[in-house]
Design goal:
The protein is α/β, with parallel strands linked by helices. The chain is built from 12 helices and 15 strands.
């Protein structure tokens, strides 16, 4: 008989971004599964993934973006870097009629804070009074769902939670541009701040696990008009997370100082969103939905193993071990002030109870 011919075409993907935590891992997995991947970004960060086509343009410059994509169509467009409703309106105009699925990377911080029920599902209401970042993501989602209902764009929404990779040290309280600062403090015996009493629950997700969920949704017709979060099922409290980092860094007796999130947000107002709007409340996410749509989805990287990879990445190259000395000094000031306040309260109480 005649040889069986495979009529499935290679799925063409456009990733807006491509060099970040989520997009790097998703690119590697998509290529491994035989998809054709194109990145659209400003070309300022060097991506080391072979086999990716590059289009260079600032997506937020409508004329430049339109010129870069020309008359091309994609099976799936994934936008990793839309943050504001203005940007989203421009994306909808740009990709209308250009793709069979438009995937927006939103945020699990969009779910209502404070958390009303300990287990979060995709139908948990979206509302975050503490963090403008989350409110903007919610506004983007609303614009997309309006476009989907109007028949303008086939939409799928993804809400990642705290996702990390080898160059990220994911903590409730850290410096995002110099994450090694906390490892340095642990190793030299300096105290490290844990917000609250460290007992609130959190979920850390490795980027390689997130990618399995995202890539499993590419071209998935039933996922149109739907939202999914994609996280690990391993739930740890912040004390365990900080302890596992210390263990990975080879520190046997770390010094931790628990300071209320209210206190920290009063000292650093810019931290209010990340604490009250996200990390200081217990957040446990139910992944049943992504598993129903992507039956082989399973997060397999335990935090203890993932954080070892991060520490090893920093230890492998001295140039990576950047320290934010000013931020570290501010932490020392707050820890010292907190200690004095505690000592003062104890002294006052001992006098009052004589």
């Amino acid at each position: 008989g005649r040889p069986h011919r495979n009529h499935t075409h290679t799925m063409k993907l456009l990733f807006i971004g491509g060099t970040g935590i989520l997009s790097s891992a998703s690119t590697r997995l998509a290529l491994a599964r035989g998809f054709k991947v194109t990145h659209l970004n400003r070309g300022q960060r060097v991506a080391t993934v072979e086999g990716v086509e590059h289009l260079t343009a600032d997506i937020n410059d409508p004329a430049a973006a339109a010129a870069a994509i020309g008359t091309r169509r994609w099976d799936v467009v994934v936008d990793f870097i839309a943050f504001t409703p203005e940007q989203m309106q421009q994306r909808i105009a740009l990709f209308k009629g250009r793709c069979d699925q438009f995937i927006f990377i939103s945020s699990a911080s969009a779910y209502a804070r404070p958390v009303a029920h300990y287990l979060i599902t995709e139908s948990t209401p979206l509302n975050n009074p503490y963090w403008s970042y989350s409110r903007d993501k919610i506004a983007c989602e609303q614009l997309l769902m309006d476009a989907w209902r109007a028949g303008d764009l086939p939409v799928t929404i993804i809400r990642p939670s705290y996702t990390y990779c080898e160059w990220v040290v994911p903590l409730a309280f850290t410096t995002h541009h110099a994450p090694y600062t906390v490892i340095d403090r642990l190793r030299r015996g300096a105290p490290v701040i844990i917000p609250g009493d460290g007992s609130s629950l959190w979920t850390m997700t490795h980027s390689s696990d997130f990618a399995k969920g995202l890539v499993g949704l590419l071209g998935h017709r039933q996922a149109l008009g739907q939202a999914f979060h994609i996280t690990s099922d391993e739930v740890l409290c912040w004390n365990q997370i900080f302890e596992q980092l210390a263990d990975a860094a080879g520190v046997r007796e770390p010094k931790f100082v628990h300071i209320a999130s209210d206190f920290l947000a009063a000292c650093w107002p810019e931290e209010t969103g990340g604490l009250h709007g996200d990390k200081s409340s217990s957040v446990v996410l139910d992944n049943s939905k992504i598993k129903r749509y992507v039956p082989d989805y399973c997060a397999t990287v335990r935090f203890a193993d993932g954080i070892r990879q991060s520490v090893a990445w920093y230890d492998a190259d001295p140039s990576r071990r950047v320290i934010d000395a000013e931020r570290s000094r501010q932490w020392d000031v707050v820890i010292e002030a907190y200690g004095k306040g505690l000592a003062g309260a104890q002294a006052a109480l001992s006098v009052a109870t004589r």
